[in-house]
Write a structure and sequence with these properties.
- The complex is a heterodimer of chains A (about 280) and B (about 290).
- By secondary structure, chain A is an all-alpha fold.
- Chain A is about 75% helix and about 0% strand.
- Chain A folds into two domains: about 60 residues, no CATH class; about 210 residues, MetI-like fold.
- The two termini of chain A are about 35 Å apart.
- By secondary structure, chain B is mainly alpha-helical.
- Chain B has a domain of about 180 residues: MetI-like (MetI-like fold).
- Chain B has a two-stranded antiparallel ribbon with strand order 1-2.
- The termini of chain B are close together.
- The mean pLDDT of chain B is about 85.
- The chains are: A mainly alpha (about 280), B mainly alpha (about 290).
- At the A-B interface, helix 1, helix 2, helix 4, helix 5 and helix 6 of A face helix 1, helix 3, helix 4, helix 5 and helix 6 of B.
């Protein structure tokens, strides 16, 4: 590579970073706005004569805003409910979906395509109409106002199965064949070979499932009637439909409760980085 | 693949937990919805079977066609921008080395934030006097009124918000897939004389076909289903110019108490989505499948 080539590479890289930075700045603007409202005493956009006054907070009332939210509803309880539901669902989704995804990708059995198409079609049904009949199922199973009603229907999703299947396609069949030749059992192949090879998919699905459960509103809203069982999403919607919507408290609380998801994201990220260093290892 | 007894046995066993869960909870709702689509039900009294009346009414309903158009506009706009941009971003990040984690985190942050609150936030982003929009170098006729209030700009406005909220997810997915491709493949091609873009086109993209299929299908499906974002942002307005199908279904079912008609609409929406997904599977068919 000549000198001109090396110079060009550096310029390209600098340009790349510059572009990424501009993009990052644009992405952060609404978030800065969010923090702005969470910290101010008044969320009104029309107060203030200059853009500067509206944009830059001159007071720090974050904890005060949080306090008002907690005074109105037991947000701590909601938080724990969300944490339990999201964690349990994520754990099961990862394993059930990856097992099924592996099977769809690497095994050939009668009716495979039909079953997969049926599962995928579930994704395409407008969720608004499924909610009421699903509630009927919950009532029939005597699970109303329980953690079970929030967890069981989502132990696995078509999204998870689909994703795992696609990622399993990238696993070379030779690995699997080699293991079989050595007499390794199928389930052990799944545990010892498949799972380590799709670690990044695991991390991804884990983050996404946790996030989806954390954010889920329609289902808990419709099926829960006991306030002690409410999840965070429901709690936030309570704040929203309050007679006097406490916007600052709203923004403050939602900011606070994005933190667990961010932690989950960072945790799962480590998994991806680990899998990076392992990807060179063969056999 | 040759079907063997082992494949048949373990294939079924491994999908059993998934099938059990999904079948147990969703078989009945699906059947009930199909049944209700042939009935009239105001949720108070018993459903009254009316055969295909709902469907006939549907095909003559101007509201349905308008909603269908709005939905397709929104779905196509979002997906056609989301997936290519996410992929390019992931490629850029892949080449950025150590700064990767930092940027990835920033782009992913909107994904993590509460959807409903983000929607409320973005209403003020488009605010004509003091919204974020005012800070950007745009021609003034685009800044004078909130995009959410203009029938011609409401869907683009929603698309921009949806992109901000969702692209991080696809960037992360593409990055995870790109990491699995050893850099040696592309380097080998480049040593042989291919340019960066050529190696990208001829080697990387074909290898990622399953991932592309996945992201496109998911993006389309999620845009179609996107009730929370659109309803919270515009409630379907102005003048129904952002009333995507889920909102139409929701209003018919929970506002006008016409659950039967809503169910029929849902069935039609399902068929449309199924049709689009079928096409996508055909387009992205790779040798493995």
């Amino acid at each position: 590579m000549g000198f001109a080539g090396a110079g060009r590479r550096i310029v390209m890289k600098a340009l790349l970073i510059a572009l990424l930075t501009v993009l990052a700045f644009l992405f952060l603007l609404p978030i800065a706005w969010w923090i702005n409202f969470a910290v101010k005493g008044n969320a009104s956009l029309t107060i203030g004569d200059t853009l500067k006054e509206i944009w830059i907070p001159n007071e720090f009332l974050l904890f005060h805003n949080l306090q008002s939210a907690f005074n109105l509803y037991p947000m701590g309880r909601f938080f724990i409910n969300s944490l339990i539901v999201a964690s349990v669902v994520t754990f099961f989704e990862l394993f059930i979906a990856s097992l099924a995804g592996f099977s769809f990708a690497k095994y050939d059995f009668k009716g495979k395509n039909i079953v997969f198409s049926a599962i995928l079609s579930l994704l395409m049904i407008p969720q608004v109409v499924l909610v009421i009949p699903l509630f009927e199922v919950v009532v029939a199973l005597d699970m109303v106002n329980t953690y079970r009603s929030l967890v069981l229907p989502f132990l696995v999703t078509p999204f998870g199965i689909f994703m795992m299947r696609q990622f399993c396609y990238s696993i070379p069949n030779d690995y699997i064949e080699a293991a079989r030749v050595e007499g390794v059992g199928e389930f052990t192949i799944y545990l010892r070979i498949i799972i380590p090879l799709i670690k990044s998919a695991f991390a991804l699905l884990g983050i996404f499932t946790f996030l989806r459960q954390w954010d889920m509103l329609l289902w808990p809203l419709i099926t829960l009637s006991k306030q002690a069982m409410y999840t965070l999403a429901v709690g936030v919607s309570l704040l929203q439909t309050n007679v006097q919507v406490p916007y600052n408290a709203l923004y403050a609380v939602t900011l606070l409760f994005s933190i667990p998801v961010i932690i989950m994201y960072l945790l799962f990220q480590r998994l991806i980085i680990e899998s990076l260093t392992m990807s060179g290892i063969k056999g | 693949m040759i079907s063997t007894r082992r494949d048949n046995l373990y294939g079924y066993i491994f999908i059993l937990p998934a099938v059990l869960v999904l079948g147990c909870f969703f078989a009945y709702p699906i059947l009930k919805t199909l049944y209700l689509s042939t009935a009239e039900w105001n949720m108070l009294s018993k459903p009254k079977l009316v055969g295909f009346k709902n469907y006939i009414r549907l095909f003559q309903d101007g509201d349905f066609y308008k909603s269908l158009w709005v939905t397709i506009y929104y779905v196509f706009g979002t997906t056609l921008l989301n997936i290519p941009l996410a992929f390019l971003c992931a490629v850029a990040l892949n080449g950025a080395g150590r700064a990767q984690g930092f940027f990835k985190g920033i782009y992913f942050t909107p994904v993590v934030l509460s959807t409903v609150i983000a929607s409320v936030l973005w209403i003020s982003v488009y605010h004509p006097y003091s919204g974020i929009m005012q800070l950007l170098p745009l021609p003034s006729h685009l800044k004078v009124q909130s995009w959410y209030q203009r029938p011609d700009l409401v869907v683009p406005g929603l698309i921009v918000f949806t992109l901000w909220k969702g692209i991080g997810l696809y960037i992360v997915i593409f990055l995870a897939a790109l990491i699995n491709i050893p850099a040696s493949y592309q380097e080998a091609a480049q040593i042989d004389g291919a340019s960066f873009w050529q190696s990208l086109l001829k080697i990387v993209i074909p290898m990622l076909k399953p991932i592309f299929l996945f992201t496109v299908v998911i993006c389309v499906v999620y845009s179609f289903q996107n009730f929370a974002i659109v309803y919270t942002s515009t409630k379907g307005g102005p003048n129904d110019y952002s009333k995507i199908l889920p909102i139409l279904i929701f209003e018919n079912g929970f506002k006008y108490y016409k659950m039967g008609y809503a169910s029929a609409l849902a069935v039609i929406q399902f068929l449309i989505m199924f049709f689009f997904s079928y096409i996508q599977f055909k387009v992205f068919k790779s040798e493995v499948e």
